[in-house]
Amino acid sequence: MLTIENLCARVEDKDILKGLNLEVKPGEVHAIMGPNGAGKSTLGSVLAGRESFTVTEGEVRFDGKDLLELDVEERAREGLFLAFQYPVEIPGVSNMEFLKASVDAVRKHQGKPDLSSVEFMKLARETSKRVKLDQAFLKRGVNEGFSGGEKKRNEILQMMLLEPRLCILDETDSGLDIDALQTVADGVNAMRSEERSFIVVTHYQRLLDYIVPDVVHVLADGKIVKSGDKSLAKELEAKGYRWLESEVA
Amino acid sequence: MSEQVEHLIRKEYAAGFHTAIDTETLPPGLNEEVVRFISAKKNEPEWLLEWRLQAFRAWQEMDEPDWAQVKYPKVDYQSISYFSSPKSMADRPKSLDEVDPKLLETYEKLGIPLHEQEMLAGVAMDVVFDSVSVVTTFREKLEEAGVLFCSISEAVAKYPELVKQHLGSVVPQKDNYFAALNSAVFSDGSFVYIPKGVRCPMELSTYFRINEQNTGQFERTLIVAEEGAYVSYLEGCTAPMRDENQLHAAVVELVAKDNAEIKYSTVQNWYPGDEEGKGGIYNFVTKRGVCHNSAKISWTQVETGSAVTWKYPSCVLRGDNSVGEFYSVALTNNYQQADTGTKMIHIGKNTRSTIISKGISAGRSQNSYRGLVRMNPGAEGARNYTQCDSLLIGDRCGAHTFPYIESKNPSAVIEHEATTSKVSDDQMFLCQQRGLDAEKAVSMIVNGFCREVFKELPMEFAVEAGKLLEVSLEGSVG
């Protein structure tokens, strides 16, 4: 599904990713862990195509397509979804309107007809129930005055409605209490399927108790320095990232 | 008037020469003779001619205002023709095929029906189109309710006492330079009279009237709502309006008697000039309403057109407990300049006013909010709330805010909030990551920014206004 080869990227004049390799197969859940400043969030931004990041080297193939050639919205329409660490507010634009516009855009790309407003509203209400987000939030401005937890649930709501094939969760667990964490994880787990892959970027092992990964990678200084199964996450938790630095060296 | 014009046009068309029509157009220049000529052409009574002449004499003594945050080459008032009869059929495009395709594209995007496109583009039509029957039904319904709605020329002839009583009562002839000019040479406009206690059964729209004739560049509108009456009036049109007249100086006067309510909504989309800022209309408008006891006047405007806009719809809250509202969206793109806002003059006790202004600047445009809130000594317990938000798109445009606050009554409460923000990269990235293209993203963010104002517009207008912003913002990103 996703093949990253020797990916190098910088923001302003600072090199962040320095030759990252990663292979994600359909249906797999990959966790990316690592110390602060390792480039975890950068990876998500670069894959999604954020303008302020410049790819200096490397190749990314998404279902055989050259991902780096595509615009931000084209990547999204192809089925790449990024759940943000800090979802931004768009005052005055109702969540419902925003969700409908994005679902319409993605469906159009897939050659599917627009959902009628009635169909869509029904779907949105049902989905918001699944992420335990009160329906009142559908009428409010996008993330406008939402708490941290509500914003993250809203991200999962968007993910569920858009049905992407590759979901990148950028520290979605940060700032969540245990109940919200459970809800977010339930959402992700419900979406797991043989055709859909996940890249779960997280700082803490805790999330991986709820979303059990197939592969765990450790990202340090812009590269993946170690990969393993879910036990690697436990080991990291116990020994800390410093342990790795000595091991790699 | 319209019948006369129709008649003239037909006659001219049948006769096959159009020099006769040309003699109906005055050569450029402005003097007393011109004012007399206009008045005579319209068969006006002596008092109105005298009224125009007073205005003209005052205008001659006045200077063009230069305090606004706008720059434009000096207007040569002697190079303008102040009276011209409508274009002859022969000069008009014969079908939409002869109309600028760019204009048609915009009509298409706004979803304007074909026959309306023809009207807006000034296509010569021999056959009277569908909406005439609509107009007739509309007229009958209004008559039943006792509402008077006609051109101001017609009103001068049919209801001279009403016109005489109210014309200039809110915006005096000498009010300002452009109002004086308008008073001297006004071409035509609308007249609305709602009798005591009557709720106008439908929204009144200039659209129905403009079908009949071109009101020209010096439009004059007078709306009188008697005690307890209500009317909602829609001015303008979301479709881009082309006009050869570069200068537009309109005057609108509203009179809301005790307990009356007037809701006045405008969508202004005059030609803004091209991407380099060439051409475009200068729109210098004076709009003001007076509220008697417990009356309410609400101005809602969506301004997207014109090269230069100078416009401050105002409320004089004369009566106790009266209410004034101003909701505004002003969008400027490319080289457009807008200096717009309002004046809320609190005279009566417990008067209240609300100002919500949303300015959006894109391209190399300059957008200014200028507003006055004045609490007179007698305005016991008066309140004002002002919220003034600016949104910038790109880094070559400007947003300015000039609030003037004068309070002469210690019990009055004035609140002012102002924000300036940019369409942020984070917002754009979120929208695009969810599959929206950049233009859709910007228009959605801008529409969200304007939501508080759009919700004040009549339903249909609000939808159109949203689309209009989208079209007006084209080319502002990427």
Automatic annotation (TrEMBL), chain A:
Entries under InterPro entries matching the protein: AAA+_ATPase (IPR003593), ABC_transporter-like_ATP-bd (IPR003439), ABC_transporter-like_CS (IPR017871), FeS-cluster_ATPase_SufC (IPR010230), P-loop_NTPase (IPR027417)
Keyword ATP-binding: yes
One Pfam match: ABC_tran
Keyword flag ATP-binding: yes
Keyword line: ATP-binding, Nucleotide-binding
CDD domains: ABC_FeS_Assembly (cd03217)
Positions of the ABC transporter domain: 2-246
PANTHER family: ABC TRANSPORTER I FAMILY MEMBER 6, CHLOROPLASTIC (PTHR43204:SF1)
NCBIfam families documented for this protein: sufC (TIGR01978)
Family: Belongs to the ABC transporter superfamily. Ycf16 family.
Designated name of the protein: Fe-S cluster assembly ATPase SufC
Organism: Gilvimarinus algae
UniProtKB/TrEMBL annotation, chain B:
Residue ranges the record marks as coiled coil: none
Organism in which the protein naturally occurs: Gilvimarinus algae
PANTHER family to which the protein is assigned, alphabetical: FES CLUSTER ASSEMBLY PROTEIN SUF, UPF0051 PROTEIN ABCI8, CHLOROPLASTIC-RELATED
Organism placement in taxonomy: Bacteria, Pseudomonadati, Pseudomonadota, Gammaproteobacteria, Cellvibrionales
Domain of life where this protein originates: Bacteria
Protein's recorded name: Fe-S cluster assembly protein SufB
Domain SUF system FeS cluster assembly SufBD N-terminal per the UniProt entry, residue ranges: 138-200
Pfam families, per database record: SUFBD_core, SufBD_N
SUPFAM superfamilies noted in UniProt: Stabilizer of iron transporter SufD (SSF101960)
Span of domain SUF system FeS cluster assembly SufBD core: 208-449
Homology family: Belongs to the iron-sulfur cluster assembly SufBD family.
